[in-house]
Protein 1
Amino acid sequence: MPGYLLEIRDLVVKYYTLSGVVRAVDHVALKLKPGEWLSIVGESGCGKSTMAYSIVRLISPPGRIVGGEIVFDGRDLLRMSRKEFRRILGRDIGVVFQDPMTSLDPLRRIGEQIAEVYMTHLGMKKKEALEKAGEVLERVGIPRDKISSYPHQLSGGQRQRVAIAIAVALKPKLLIADEPTTALDVIVQDTIMDLLQSFKKEGTSILFITHDLALAAERSDRIAVMYAGKLVEEGPVEKIVENPLHPYTQGLLKSVPDLWGPKKIESILGYPPDLRSPPPGCRFHPRCRYADDRCRREEPVLRCFGEHCVACHKAGSSEVEG
């Protein structure tokens, strides 16, 4: 058995609201190897960000992790004391959030915010920590003289690179990136992806959250597809792109435009279900053209064909070939 840096085992996360219990992540299991790039793909509201935030224990009320294990480097993160976990977060696990304006302190200079990582985890004096902050700023493509700037004085792309600088300052084993290219133009988006790729080449594992399957396919080693709180397909990127087994994955691929040739873009009919009362059987069946009585009645289990796993009753049949 290969060694895994991260193992998510039977994770269940629920939100207890006045209108009902939302099953945001429902018995999900995933594994990530050292130095691997795994992308989690799905529509908004499918549970991918909730799963990622569970790893760093950022699920706050009314949300609650009600079951499962999250094993990082051989230790269950969910059973650590707060003090133990704080030693790991920022040092061994870095996080890049979707909107850097919500993760950066608007009242503090960016150099101070990066330096805090070195001061907190390595016990550096402020002068030495600021020097290291300047070095990591240059590493992410921002001139050192910007070290005294406030977040609002930077562009969106620069702010995102500052957020990445904070996350990778101590060369973490795992970097979680939650839609870090959202709202950025395609040139800046590509720069950010190149930057993440450079850290992967140095041995950092990447857990990349995105709704853009085409973007994920460009860089990933493996892709996991989530729908309505469930993992519906997972495997090597070439398997997912060239031979998608789940109708939902097929629909995501068909909705991606092709700039290099003629292609009919098809949308997925309908909308994701209300996770307070998901449909019985396969949760995708109300939107699936292949659904039959079994799909409406019986929930599919995740089956694996080598490294390629899928939760679909009809997977592998000629009926649903991509």
Protein 2
Amino acid sequence: MSNIKFVKENQEAVVADGANLREKMLQNGIDLYTFKGKLMNCGGYGQCGTCIVEIVEGMENLSPRTEIEERKFKRKPPSYRLACQTLVNGPVSVKTKP
């Protein structure tokens, strides 16, 4: 089991190892998307780039960045991830809408 801490929301969620970050955020009522993202998100396929999160702690407990993330985040810090492409394998702290 893994623990996800949502920094801005001051909430925590306990999830199974290997859980998809986007799915767990939505299941726990975490507001993941900006207004534009709410209207135009791709449903978790990594195409739109609207589910951006910043990993504050625990980067080593996540799956490696995918090719999609590498392309979308060429000029962004390594702590930026797409929630839909991220699997959680240990404790992590996440900041939404960086």
Protein 3
Amino acid sequence: MEPQLLHRVADSVATVVIAHPAKRNAMTAAMWRALPPLLDALAADPGVRALVLTGEGGTFCAGADISTLRASPAEAQGLAVRAEEALAAFPKPTLAAVRGHCVGGGAQLAAACDLRFAEEGALFGVTPAKLGIVYPASATRRLVSLVGPAAAKYLLFSGELIGTDRALRTGLVDEVLPAGELDKRVAEFTRVLVCRSQLTQAAAKEFADGHTDRDAYWAEQMRDGGDTAEGVAAFLERRQPRFTWTASG
């Protein structure tokens, strides 16, 4: 299989698959470049209400495929940062479904998702210290926000891999599933996400990411967007709400 990003949309969930199994799904330069426009297209699709990022087969992503990065380290790193930032800015809920290795650039992508679910036995590592590379400031801040300064320094200083127990304890992952249960749990959880209000989710995502200066905008959306009236009506009528407000990129 040629290295590529696969994607599909089903039941309002977009699934993006990192597919380079010959190298544990390492990201080539072309794959880094392809991710932002793919995310833009999926963000603009009103039929997409959540996104799952995962890897082909038994691993998530082992980082960057160094053999395809002909540019300087700084330029190559720039490709990864642009992809990471595009994923972090995706306006709908994102979830990384992790099996096997989630290392280097793979960990960078997983950290840029809103949530991370992992299968028991997955391994996580942030490995620039093994290559003498300065980890980007944006990715460092994102890692610190997830696991705290001490755990981030442990990962960055050592480049050591950690298992799912430690990843869960530090907040790097949100749920750990037994072998064979990851896909089922991801499907179950995304069914919950897509039936909830995108208005609530989009505002919460902005606020949680530190963008706290748009209270007036979100108050206007709550007043005029229709989801609040529908949610209250559905509660009083004891039925499932039919939310219609749509986030876009």
